[in-house]
Amino acid sequence: MKMKFGKLIFGAAFLLLGVFTSCDKDNEGTLYQPTNTNVTLEKDNFGVIPSTETSKDIAIRVYRAQTAGELTVGYTMTTPTEGIFTDLGNGRVTFENGSGVAVINIKAENMVPGNKYDLKIELDDAAKATLDTITNRANYTADLSVFCEYVWEALDGKAVYNSPVAFEASWEVDVMRAKGTDIYKIVGLYEETYDVIFSIDADNNVIVEEQPAWTYEDGGTKYAVNIVGNANGDQSGNAGKYDPATKKVQLTLFHFIPKVGDFGTFADELTLP
Description:
Strand content: over 45%
């Protein structure tokens, strides 16, 4: 529906353009052509770029309106995280003669799964000075982020989840582990819609950060119920301990609806396969 609406607007704009350009053939002139080079980045925000690997090649296109001759443009990169992004062009990108497109090549590496890394690119003052004063439109800065996704690997066999008070039941579940980490995901623990993620630290503490886990309906209104580890009674995320000998994971969880109310804290247990 949104796509169709976009096309209708686009079509109306061109119909309006036709009214202005074709109603007087005798005075019809040529369309405006930029008089300056007008160097611009492809866009000002690239959003979040996902990566399933710890390294990622990134290509940022740069455009110019006038293509005669070779042109080299300078730029800078800034990031709050050191050791991740490498500028393969060393702050310079060159348009070949006759080309209106050049590419800034960047490599992201040494990324840790589950982390997002931010980067800003800015063209130099010489590039900014090429702005066409009639169109007066160009992107001189661009923001982007790279998110290094977890690669989930299924554990062999079924795990058993025991919730003696909250759900008064035990049932088999599938558990996955993020490759190279001690982060686990219980697939569709309470409902198919929600997976529950927990981690085990070097001291075998089980950490469950706040996350939605199931839904509750009251009076026709459906709420997302969040959980958080509450073994210490402070909702800090600590859900208990992991026993490597028995493969039992303590999951003491506080169940609540933000800004509405709570169901209390319940001590559950997961036995890994």
